[in-house]
What does this fold into?
Amino acid sequence: MPRSAAALHTLDIIGVYAVAGLLIILGMLVSPDFLTADNFLSILSAVALLGIVASGMAFITYSGSMADLSVPAIMAFSGIIAVAALPLGLPVALALGLLAGLAIGVMNGVVVGVLNANPILWTLAVAFFMEGFMRFTWSNNQLYPDTEPGTPGAAFIELFRTRVGALPLIVVVMFALFVLGHATMAWTRFGRESRLVGSHRAAARTSGVRVSRVVFLNFLLAAFAASIAGIFLASMNKLGVFYLGQGYDFRAVTAVVIGGVMLSGGRGHMAGVLGGVLVIGLLTNIMTFLGITAFRQNIVTGMVFIAVVGLQQYRLRARGRDYA
Amino acid sequence: MPNARQPTSTASRSARTHAVRLVNEHRALLMLGALSSYLAVCAPNFLSVENATTILKGASLNAITAIGFTIILILGQLDLSVGAVVMLCGMLAVGLEPQWGWAASILASVAAGAGVGLVNGWLVVRARINSFIVTLGTMTVVTGLMHLYSDGGSKSIDDYRFADWLEKPVVSFFPPLVIITVALVMGFQAFLSRTRYGRGFFMVGGNAEAAWLAGLKRDRYLMAGFVLCSTMAAVGGALFAASLSSMTSAAVLGTRTLMTVLAAVIIGGTVMTGGKGSVFKSYLAVLMLTTLFNGIGCYGLGFEVQIFVNGLILALVVLYEAFAIHRQDVLRGQRPDLLREVEEGTVFEGGQPPSTEAGESEMNGKDRFPLICVTLTAIVAIAAITAMYFKYASLPVQVVDVGGTPRAADEPDVFVLRGTDGQPYLFPTADPVTIPDRPEDPKALPEEDKGHWWDIEFAGWKVQKEPMPVSPGDGSRGKRVILLKAGDHPYWTAYVRGFNVIADAYGMKTKVFNGNWNMDLQAQQTDQAIHERPDMIIFAPVDATACTPLLRRIYKAGIPCITSNTIPCDEAMKYCIAWTGPDDWGQFRMLTRVFADALGKQGGYAIVRHMPGSSCFFSRTYAPITELREYAPDMKLLALDTANLEAEATMQLVDAWLTKFGEELKGLVLAGDGFSMTGTLEAVHKAGRTDIVIVAAGNSKTGMDSIKAGEALAISYQSAEGDGALAVHSAARWFSGETLEPVAYLPKHIITKDDVDQFMPAQW
It folds into this structure.
């Protein structure tokens, strides 16, 4: 990467963190209790699930497929399967839950990657019929694990509540996924290929990139992250049900886009996405401190979202890098 | 372009390829035709003039919204805010009507919609932000504005003249609502395909460069497109609200409208990349989906089947389209001569519509990798599902003890039947209720005053009912009862269980419609239920206020109706024989007193509210506030907010409260003991607070477990099975000629650690 481009690259990352920094200053003004380790830990654990989903969704957006709307279905499905398979033992249950989510990812990957279906529409269709399938199979019921001490169920619900040192396991997993994601996106051949596919699919194809495979793997990664989040969500709620995970699709896209990944693909980085997730967490936390109710929070969040993305767009245009 | 070149060969293959193309072009019409002919022959109660009107009427909201949405897709853009605009503008139309009258309020709401469109357009055109992002943002903002305007409740007006006019057929079986819809569709179809400006939309969306060369101003077209799209959504929302004289603020109406419209427009043949589409075909596709939902309802199948089939149809269409493009790409890139042959029908044996298998097998040689993955995963997934299913099936099944086989006698002893939690479904005597006097003007009192809520809390007790249908007095045996339930939830699964047990005991025939929390769907289902002419409709409203016109329709059709679960407003109570369900206010007052006693009537507390748009959003917030004001005036309300009943959001909310208020916060009142409880307990544990007193509305398994573990102090006992049982029991009493009380409450009880075991296992 040429030096000037690298500098701009750094600047892009700083962009989101500048917003985060502003929010932290605002928070300090709002309440003396804001800038405490406890509060930051609670912000982190509140956005950890979103962060995990976003770390996968970022690959979809980065490689030019915009969004995976089947994420809620993947989360619910992996959660239900994990809970249902608990009698087989915790490791098997977790593996099956993960595989269940990955199965949807594979289906998405093949249809969007190989058959070139429209990603938004296909994943919407998947979300529809998976919802129907899950409602039908479990008769709209919640599936509870057996949580007697010593059973796999008890270990399963502890999953969300485990701590690694001072940090909750889920926060550690989120950071791990972001580090892995960053390594994959920035330093591997697959990451570079994703970038090329995201920027210009035809150019990627002519230069010998196996586009189908790259898109396929991106959907697989998104499903992988969503499955992990789904299992954690089921563990947190101590049950599996078809509507767990609703809303995570658009929320994750919001985080990814605030984080500077362009919806048109091929531009952005994982560090920015992490920043986007933090901005969302900080914003909600500060607004709750201020006593702003959920209705007004919606309005502010929507406006901040548009404003941040608008600014990024403006800076790109000012540098003559309009994506149009 | 498929139609650009005429087939030169006269071979029959060419004709067949042409036929495939024709089928694809008119797929919405063909699907609609095939589906309705199948349903007309096979489905019970489908083929009737009334049902045709129901479908046409039911499609109008989605159809009008789909007009604008088609235009925006033709331009190659996306508008995710249409659902939110529908809700905001419906709310505005109803909210402004009392001061301004219908004409002005509808105009104002349409103007508001156009305003949203202008903002969207400006951000896309001037600020050059991707329309997906812009409208994702405005969707959130507009939903927030709508909730702010409605305060999370519903709005309604008691004047039905305009609604009746919209609904009543004028020309054969077309009511004005349908005529307006069709006129709009036809008008826009003509505008898009017959005028120069209209055709410009296709050019700008399909080929921006050509449009520029032709001198078309892309920015203006985009601007016009966004304004038109939001305006049409506003018209749809305003007419929908006008036809019901009310509007709900439950956000699911907006999200389902967006999803259904998106699916319908694509099924109708519009492509997301722009440049191709038809308003008329979108309308046909909306009709097709509405017919599908209607038909599935005729069979008595649930929403799960509807959404499943909807997903499959969309998936097939997307796959077909992807395959068609893919086939062209492959051929165009490698052998242009082959492409011509395909178009002339000389390759692809028989010109059959290519299936997905064909698509995958074609890729076989190129990239086996994904296919291997598919096979592997499919095997694993099948194995997983089988394993899981075995395990699930081998789990101990809770046996419903119905006291032997249902006896189906005319006067069965239903009071001995016990539900899955070991409690009786029904109690022979109800708790005595005292109704205080209605204040002069409840709304003039502050919200913290009990009197402010009198009309909601005691709805139905003092209302002057319209003359009610007379009971046949011949018992309930063989009577057909239709249950219109509000939506899917484990509570409702248990409700239907209780409902069916008692209905079986009385020998009634039942059928269930599921409204999926969507006002639009419940309105259609109400019409559908009326056309089936049952002996009784049991109606569980999606919305306490907006259900009034639906109950009125049932009343006008002469069908006796009992409302259940959510307590409707006073106006709605005029049109039903009785209401049965939980005394939400009463049990929350009891719960609050237990809460205050545990805190010694001292200290600060906070309330986690229910979902906006539900009646519990108010009852489970203001019952505690008003009760504590009198019972424990020293207690201080620190905060109240909704987390949409999500565990993560609740955790975040309570976390922030605990940090903000610290030791000042002594107690929490939760509107639900499921996800709200889970999230709250997480936050409380994390903060290391063991002194916080928690009470919640019950009683799910999660709630009972936390009572048992001593994490929460108390929950209310609200038997879901009992709720269903009480409704159908009241129906049975009415059939045998008894006079019903206008309101019948479920027994109230507060579950604490002392007696929690009596209520185990939980019903849901």
